[in-house]
Each structure stands twice: as structure tokens, then as C-alpha cells.
Design goal:
- By secondary structure, the protein is an alpha+beta fold.
- The chain folds into 4 domains: 14-135, no CATH class; 144-254, 2-Layer Sandwich (Beta-Lactamase); 255-329; 339-491, Heat Shock Protein 90.
- 55% of the residues lie in helices and 15% in strands.
- The chain has helices at residues 14-20, 22-41, 45-63, 65-82, 94-141, 150-161, 186-196, 231-295, 300-329, 343-352, 378-394, 452-462, 488-491, and strands at 165-170, 175-180, 200-202, 207-214, 217-225, 339-342, 363-366, 373-376, 402-409, 412-419, 466-472, 476-484.
- Helix 3 (45-63) packs parallel to helix 5 (94-141).
- The relative contact order is 0.06.
Length: 492
């Protein structure tokens, strides 16, 4: 099998040998004809020698040095025998040796120049073929839409460049792909080349080991087995492989993001529908229970049962309101109506709206001094703060105090809610604000919907603020919320 871009000459058969010897055969025939004509018309030594020199040059150009040497010896012999006195004699003379030396020197120079020109022409042709194959390979690679392009890349490169085998190591997934033959140590060397970060050509096996890069960042390794291609082509193929792998990962991310968006849209629609469907029967149930309580005349047991129904209906109503809030916040048209408000007033109102039995007395408020107004949608912020306070009560130890601290710093107003309870692991802190996520530490505590903190984050983000959770080892988890302070002109 011949390798791409390398001159590998197979043994010539009889027909090939005859074709290869054709330049010297034609030149010898031409010398014979010229000798006969020049001798018959009485041409001089100089004219005949010039004709012979032309045949030597042509033979050196098309037949090479050794065929030109044969033609040079024949030409020098003809000059000596027919045109150098005494004629019809091979007596040695300085003229004969000078002619032979001139012919040989010309054959040597012309053959070398011809060989060099041929080599450059072959290199140019090989380079053009490499570029054509690289272009076709890159075009086909960019058409890939598979999430697992590794096997396709290896197969395509092997077929396009007529290689014995291709091996590709993807460092991100730590997976190796291959196509065709495999050398005993090619897998190890393909991985090693990624860590060594340098391209290597193994002459005995005619194998390129190249670093797969994305820009300047190494992302894998590649082995091109059985090739004589240039380093430029080998590194270009490795870069193409890196681009293809990254493109596949981008397609995966886009597809998953699209699926996530569609799932989220469906989820929001379901939440909205459920919340509205719950609102009507809950309103009827609350009206009936409130009416029974107002009418009076109930026995102690009846009063207890109706009170329980009213309280639970009220909780279900708050849950339905929360679901509606989540749906509204996910709408593209959601924009907070901002105006200057005091954050302390929002906190006070949120405390007043808590159930009396929720334990308002457990809250210890430290007001900020001095107070700074913030730009906020008061209703939205009331929902966010109320949710954080509700979480603090629900997941803290019964009867333990909940500390609220307001402070102004660096043009921000900060609310910190600190309670004693489960300590959320550091790895779980960011996930607390994901929709429907519940920390493992709260599984045995009062059940929740997993919506509250996601609503808080959505509201705070819309106000260009920040919200976070900070575990305190041996005590609990505190929550922080910041909003940008209003400027003097905005407050006015």
C-alpha cells in the first residue's frame, strides 16, 4: 500500500523497465543519426559535439544521471572515432577526454537540477492534495450533527487520507475512539501526547502523535498511523478534531437547554392552571368556614373542626398564591414597578402578615442606622421577604429566636436572617434557590413546595440585587438579601 504524499516506487515490470530506459534509447538513436549525417556532409568536431551535448542534456532531464552517463560515453566515443584525427580510431587524445568531461559535467548538473525541480513539483502537488483533502474533511466534519462524533471523525480522516488507522483521545470525557489498525502502544502514546503537550512523528511506524487543541488549549490527543503527511497537515487535522468535539458538546448543551426551556414552560403553564383551579373552590371553602364561625352556636368540637378547616383552607390559599406568583415571575412580560421605599417598612409589613400562631415574638429585629431607601416593587419585595421569614420559622428549632438585621453598606441595603436549625452543606447552597429543590437536611422537617426560595431569587434578580445562603457550623443557616440603595435624585 502506498502512503499519501510520499514517493514510494514499486518494483518495475518489463514494460515499466522499457519505458524507464526510453530516454537513453532515443538519445542513442539520435546520436547515431546525427553522426551519420554530420560525417556525410563533413561537419566539424565543434558542431557535432554541440548536437551531442543537446542529447546529453535531454537524457539527463528525462532519464537521470546514469542514463545520461551512458549517452555521454557513446557521444564521446563517436566524436573520437569519426571526428578526431586519426579518424576511424579510438586513439586517446586530450580532445576526447575534454569532450567526455564536458558531457559528464553537463549530465550531472542537469540531472541534479531536474531532480530538484521534480522534487519541488512533487511537494507542490502533495501540498495541494493535502489542502484539498483538508478542505473536504473540514467541510464534512462541520456537517456532523451527532452527539458522539469521535468514531465518525476517526473514520472520515482515515478514509480521506488513506491511513492505516486513526486514534482520538478526548480528555474531557476520558474516552478514546479509533478506526482501522492500531499499534500496540498507540493508545498510551495518544494519551501521553496530551499531557506532554507536544507533537511527535514516529519514523519507524510512520505515525504522527499530535495534541488536539481548541485554540491554544489542549483538549485531547490524536494518532495518525501510516502516513508521511507534513506536520502542518497533521496539526490541522488535530485542530479540526478539537473543533468537531467542541461543536458536538455545544449542540448537546443547546439541545438540553432547549428541552429544559420547553419543560419549564410546560411546568409554568401547569402551575398557573392548577393555581387558578384551586382558587375558586378554596374561596368557597373559606367563605363557608368563615360564615360558620361568624354564625356561632357551634359546639366545642364543631368549633374546633371548623377552625381547622378555615386554617388549612387559608394555607392552601397561600400556596395557590405562591404558584401564581411563580407563574407571573416566569412570564416574559414581568417587570417590577420600582419606586423608593424603606426596606424596614417592607420587613415590618411582612412580619405583620405572618400568622399569629407562627410565633411573631420569635423575631428580633435590629434596624439599620441610618436607613437608606431602595428602589423596589413593594408588593414583590413583600412576597420575597415574607417567604424568607416563613422559611426561617418553618426550618428553625421550635421556640428559638430568629434574628433580623438591617444594614446599609457600599450603596446597598442588606437584610440578614439568622436562625438556629439544620446546617446546609456548602455544596447545596446554590441549589437551594432552584425550583422544587429541597436540601437533604430538611427532608424530615415540615414539607414544602420547593418554590419559595426560587421565587425570592427571581424577585431579587429582577431588582438587580443578590440573595445567598451561608451555613454556620453548629448553629444553622443564615440568609442574606441585598438591594441597591436609591440615589438622592431617585429618592426625591
Amino acid at each position: 500500500m502506498s502512503f499519501p504524499f510520499v514517493n514510494v516506487r514499486a518494483p518495475l515490470n518489463l514494460k515499466g523497465k522499457l519505458a524507464a530506459a526510453m530516454p537513453s534509447a532515443l538519445a542513442l538513436a539520435g546520436i547515431a543519426v546525427c553522426t551519420w549525417l554530420a560525417f556525410r556532409v563533413g561537419q566539424s568536431f565543434a558542431f557535432t559535439g554541440f548536437l551531442y551535448l543537446v542529447f546529453v542534456v535531454l537524457t539527463a532531464r528525462y532519464g537521470g544521471f546514469w542514463q545520461a552517463t551512458v549517452v555521454s560515453v557513446a557521444a564521446a566515443a563517436c566524436l573520437n572515432y569519426f571526428f578526431v584525427p586519426p579518424i576511424f580510431s579510438f586513439a586517446n587524445s586530450p580532445t576526447n577526454w575534454a569532450a567526455l568531461g564536458a558531457f559528464e559535467f553537463t549530465a550531472l548538473v542537469i540531472s541534479r537540477l531536474s531532480q530538484r525541480a521534480q522534487m519541488r513539483a512533487d511537494e507542490a502537488i502533495a501540498g495541494r492534495r493535502e489542502m484539498e483533502r483538508l478542505y473536504e474533511t473540514s467541510r464534512r466534519i462541520l456537517l456532523f450533527s451527532s452527539w458522539e462524533p469521535g468514531p465518525l471523525i476517526c473514520s472520515l480522516i482515515r478514509d480521506s487520507f488513506e491511513l492505516r488507522g486513526v486514534r482520538l483521545f478526548d480528555a474531557q470525557s476520558a474516552v478514546t475512539y479509533e478506526s482501522g489498525e492500531s499499534l500496540p502502544d498507540s493508545e498510551t502514546r495518544t494519551r501521553d501526547i496530551y499531557y506532554l503537550d507536544g507533537d511527535v512523528f514516529d519514523s519507524p511506524t510512520r505515525t504522527w502523535y499530535c495534541v488536539v487543541r481548541l485554540g491554544i488549549q489542549p483538549v485531547g490527543g490524536m494518532a495518525l498511523i501510516g502516513t508521511g503527511m507534513t506536520k502542518l497537515a497533521a496539526t490541522a487535522l488535530a485542530s479540526l478534531a478539537g473543533i468537531a468535539l467542541e461543536r458536538a458538546r455545544t449542540l448537546q448543551r443547546e439541545s438540553r437547554a432547549q428541552a429544559s426551556r420547553q419543560t419549564e414552560q410546560l411546568r409554568v403553564a401547569v402551575l398557573d392552571a392548577l393555581a387558578h383551579d384551586f382558587k375558586t373552590p378554596l374561596a368557597v371553602a373559606r367563605t363557608a368556614s368563615s360564615g360558620l364561625l361568624e354564625l356561632g352556636g357551634l359546639t366545642e368540637l364543631q368549633l374546633e373542626l371548623v377552625t381547622t378547616i378555615d386554617r388549612q383552607a387559608n394555607k392552601l390559599n397561600r400556596l395557590a398564591s405562591r404558584l401564581l406568583t411563580a407563574a407571573v415571575l416566569d412570564g416574559a412580560e414581568f417587570k417590577p414597578r420600582l419606586k423608593p421605599v424603606l426596606f424596614s417598612s417592607v420587613v415590618d409589613e411582612a412580619l405583620r402578615k405572618l400568622d399569629l400562631e407562627a410565633g411573631q415574638v420569635r423575631f428580633r429585629v435590629t434596624p439599620g442606622n441610618p436607613e437608606m431607601p431602595v428602589l423596589a416593587d413593594e408588593e414583590m419585595m413583600l412576597t420575597a421577604v415574607g417567604q424568607i421569614l416563613d422559611n426561617a420559622l418553618k426550618y428553625s428549632e421550635p421556640g428559638s429566636p430568629v434574628d433580623l438585621c438591617l444594614a446599609a453598606r457600599d450603596l446597598e441595603v442588606v437584610l440578614t436572617v439568622r436562625s438556629k436549625g439544620p446546617v446546609v452543606a456548602a455544596s447545596e447552597r446554590l441549589r437551594l434557590f432552584e425550583r422544587f429543590y429541597r436540601s437533604p437536611e430538611t427532608r424530615n422537617l415540615p414539607a414544602g413546595t420547593g418554590l419559595g426560595l426560587s421565587i425570592v431569587k427571581r424577585i431579587v434578580d429582577a431588582h438587580r440585587g443578590r440573595v445567598w445562603a451561608e451555613p454556620e457550623v453548629g448553629y444553622g443557616t443564615s440568609f442574606g438579601l441585598t438591594l441597591p440603595a436609591a440615589t438622592v435624585s431617585q429618592a426625591a
